[in-house]
Amino acid sequence: MRTLALIVATSLVSGCSPKVRDFPGDHDVGSGGSGAGGSSGATTSSSDTASSSDATSSGASSSSGGGTDSCVDPAEDCPPAQGACMEAVCSEGECAERPRPARTPCGADGSAQCDGTGDCVTCAGGMACECGEPGCPNTCGSMDVMVMPPSCAGGGPGAGDSCGPGDASCCGNRMVPCGTFLRGYDGTPSTDDSFPAAISDFRLDKYEITVGRFRAFVDAGQGVQESPPAIGAGRHPHVNGSGWVAGWNTRLAPNTAALKAALQCNGDRLWTWTDAPGANEELPINCITWFEAFAFCAWDGGRLPSEAEWNYAAAGGDEHRPYPWGSEIDGDRASYSCTGDGSAAGACALSDILPVGSKPRGDGRWGHSDLAGNLWEWTMDWWRDAPPTPCIDCVHRVDGDRDATRVTRGGSYRAPAADVRAGNRDFSYPIDRVNNIGARCAR
Ligand SMILES: [Ca+2]
Ligand SMILES: [Ca+2]
């Protein structure tokens, strides 16, 4: 209902001071395989913060000045917002202001960042980080601010408070605190420690994109050539030039009717989309191209996660978990090998694609569901056999190579256990529509 509401958590994300990129030489100690019991203070802190955010989604009003001017389009009808980190909005038909999202670039040269409360700060000016030092993430300790994404503005099945245990918001998102880790490494069997990465804190959606949320996007006329994303939309905040480019427009379906038809992909009856709202609203949307996943996340106020970010969230960061929850997999943790519906392995059916959040025992270190299995998830990166190194908030992107393969992560309801491991990688062509690939957004 109050789509512009902001929920400002009371505490800063803490425990993040990776001044020096420090990867222990002995990875058998304190790294791989200890996920289930190895929670640290920082883990507890961020989980608590995230829970309280989700539980209070009717939070504070965003209205903070701007008078009582009536408006439809804030750019046309409202006075400019006061300050680089505030923006004018129409709230229930009246002009108001709200803080720009945390980490929005600001300042004369764009090198400072909004802190989520309306102030433009440099790292030295208030954010608890060690920005700019060699090997470190760009930002740490950002304010834990949750913005309710537009895809859940209308509520309803799959796009409101109907996902996971306890009917949580299908648009819930969780802070992933900054840190360093080894991409692909999990102690056993993946012992290659040659791909370190530093990851700034970011928010990652708790769930894969649901059919209900994708319906809001389709109903808004988005994701098609008639209404492509703005140039530069959906960029990674730390990677210049990582947003939408005009040359991708022609890779979208011409119009909404064509998009709806295409979502019934492969003729195999394993698509989750329905033209009218039905029983599938809480299922993850499949049969979406990389371009549609990118466009959805951009429209939804976010972006695709980088491959490194996705890996970091699934591995529990420097805990290097083999699976998001720990070291062993079973049917209570994930939908994989076509056993999600309780059948024998290999008996694959639409019923193996589960409503998002159906396996809460498989949630990751920071509360994200279905990182292992259900659907593969598109990431922002172009495929490369060896991940790019060095990697400080890196995205591997090849401009001018529009149709080259992109990275997918996490395995799917069809994949064997080995493929749903946190460190596993795969790729697909960005125009591919298949019944085992979906996506989730970062913010
Ligand atoms: Ca089955
Ligand atoms: Ca998944």
TrEMBL record:
<dbReference type="InterPro" id="IPR005532">
    <property type="entry name" value="SUMF_dom"/>
</dbReference>
<feature type="compositionally biased region" description="Low complexity">
    <location>
        <begin position="41"/>
        <end position="63"/>
    </location>
</feature>
<dbReference type="Pfam" id="PF03781">
    <property type="entry name" value="FGE-sulfatase"/>
</dbReference>
<dbReference type="InterPro" id="IPR042095">
    <property type="entry name" value="SUMF_sf"/>
</dbReference>
<feature type="compositionally biased region" description="Gly residues">
    <location>
        <begin position="30"/>
        <end position="40"/>
    </location>
</feature>
<feature type="region of interest" description="Disordered">
    <location>
        <begin position="17"/>
        <end position="68"/>
    </location>
</feature>
<protein>
    <submittedName>
        <fullName>SUMF1/EgtB/PvdO family nonheme iron enzyme</fullName>
    </submittedName>
</protein>
<dbReference type="InterPro" id="IPR051043">
    <property type="entry name" value="Sulfatase_Mod_Factor_Kinase"/>
</dbReference>
<feature type="domain" description="Sulfatase-modifying factor enzyme-like">
    <location>
        <begin position="176"/>
        <end position="443"/>
    </location>
</feature>
<dbReference type="InterPro" id="IPR016187">
    <property type="entry name" value="CTDL_fold"/>
</dbReference>
<feature type="compositionally biased region" description="Basic and acidic residues">
    <location>
        <begin position="19"/>
        <end position="29"/>
    </location>
</feature>
